[in-house]
Amino acid sequence: MNPIALKTGILIFVLLASHNLSDAQVAYQEHLETDEVLIEYRWQKEQFFARNPHALLNLQVTNLTGEHMVIRFAVGFYRDQQLFFESEAHEICLEPGESLRGRRGDLRFKAEDIRMDIIEEDWFDWDIVWHETEQVDVCD
To answer: Which of 94, 97, 100, 110 has its Cβ near the most Cβ atoms within 10 Å?
Structure first.
């Protein structure tokens, strides 16, 4: 193989890998904290190389108690304070101090017409539409 092509390929791979790692290290921001649960969020592009990609809302949910907790909630997206998208109800069970986040915890949310540029608009907002917690003996 041509040494210049090999070096170029390695350089491109390293640049892409480092960019993906830096994107993965974006800190979560606090959104809601109660005595029982902490919900944090961060926005992510659905497709990295797309010009105007859909925005994905990634949540991280942490059990702040010393007990096993079932957490149920729904996410809503708002336009001018009017709800235009509400997710299906989500239910997760967390052990004491446990956190789940993003794809691994099935905590990614997307609305069809919400793109990365829209989440910066003044008229756009999101929130936890409702949530409830329940102490349980053990998580299944």
So the answer is: 94
